[in-house]
Design brief:
Layout: E1 5-6, E2 9-10, E3 13-14, E4 18-19, E5 30-33, H1 40-70, H2 77-105, E6 110-112, H3 113-146, H4 151-154, H5 157-182, E7 191-192, H6 199-204, H7 213-244, H8 249-278, H9 287-309, H10 313-326
Parallel strand pairs: 5-7
Antiparallel strand pairs: 1-2, 3-4, 5-6
Length: 338
């Protein structure tokens, strides 16, 4: 086996399997990303695929935000939170994918220490705030369905802004605390078997006798995630109880069509996130681990706009009106395809 060195840091040492050795420095100057094989055909496919996925996610979510901002009919709490969710999708995929594309174009596998810190910070920030917004949106649906007469009073403009601000600040607070704690530890390897600074891979590289404060921060994060999950679960239990009391079949279908996209997005987020962060991390590069992380980072930002708009007539009509105003010479506003 061959020793790889990054700065004054020894990547691995061939002694009883894969072990890690520190040199004189206790802090690394950067990390080695071993996500994709250094094969020209693979790298070309990686660049093209990532560029396409990134552009699709960017365009879809920008359309959602633009349509909601443009149409006064969509200036409601549900679409206000949806616009925030689309902004988070754009931001989260922008944390990892552009850097991976740039590395492949420049034929390098390195990421600096500060860049890794930024990736971890923004990943945690957008992940926790995204989860918080899913909880807020579930509560919004609960009030709309279970207490429709008090909906405008409970979900007024001030309350919506306060909820959105709390979601963003909560994610920012936890990301600051988590990142500051994580990068206080000593790392016994600078090799990350991913195309970005993935949290499980980074924690795997921490030395056994490192600062245990990170365990308490992870516990706090788990408690915070449980609170969001409890809010979502409570909201939908109450919604399903209310649906069962609706006498008409049409009324039940209308409620389900309103809640189903949100439930699918929640399921996609929870299943992919749970699978990524609770599975055992491997010591060697794994195609399966790479595919799982790609799914977690790239599929939700691409699929969320489609899931929310595919059966949403209001969103489709607002999009059509926007297109008519932009291209009036090509489109007839009286002949909508929706």
């Amino acid at each position: 086996m061959r020793k790889k060195e990054y700065g004054s840091f020894l990547s691995w040492a061939p002694n009883k399997g894969v072990k890690y050795a520190m040199m004189n420095q206790s802090r690394v100057s950067g990390f080695l990303l071993h996500g994709f094989p250094d094969i020209q055909e693979v790298q070309i496919f990686h660049i093209n695929f990532f560029v396409i996925i990134y552009l699709v996610a960017l365009i879809e979510n920008l359309i959602i935000i633009t349509v909601i901002f443009y149409s006064h009919q969509l200036h409601t709490p549900m679409y206000f939170f949806l616009a925030n969710l689309s902004l988070q999708d754009i931001s989260s995929i922008s944390v990892t994918v552009p850097k991976s594309i740039a590395n492949s174009l420049m034929k390098t596998q390195t990421i600096s220490y500060s860049e890794c810190v930024c990736q971890i910070f923004f990943l945690v920030f957008f992940m926790m705030s995204h989860y918080a917004f899913l909880g807020v949106m579930a509560y919004d649906r609960y009030v709309a369905i279970c207490n429709p007469l008090h909906y405008e009073t409970v979900m007024n403009k001030k309350a919506c802004i306060q909820m959105a601000t709390s979601a963003w600040i909560g994610g920012l607070f936890y990301a600051t605390m988590y990142t500051g704690t994580t990068f206080r530890v000593e790392f016994c390897s600078n090799v990350i078997n991913q195309f970005f600074c993935e949290i499980p891979q980074l924690l795997k590289n921490s030395c056994p006798d490192s600062d245990t404060t990170v365990i308490w921060v992870l516990t706090f994060g788990a408690c915070l995630a449980f609170i969001y999950f409890a809010l979502i679960a409570f909201s939908y239990v109450q919604i399903f109880r209310a649906v069962l009391k609706i006498p008409s079949r049409h009324g039940k279908q209308k409620v389900f069509s309103t809640c189903l996209p949100h439930l699918i997005v929640i399921t996609l987020f929870l299943v992919s996130g749970t699978f990524v962060y609770l599975r055992p991390t491997s010591r060697s590069p794994s195609a399966f681990d790479l595919l799982v992380s790609m799914f977690y980072c790239m599929v939700p930002p691409v699929m969320n706009p489609i899931i929310y708009s595919i059966r949403n007539k209001e969103l489709k009509m607002a999009f059509w009106k926007l297109l008519v105003n932009i291209f009036p010479q090509f489109l007839d506003k009286n002949h909508s395809p929706f």
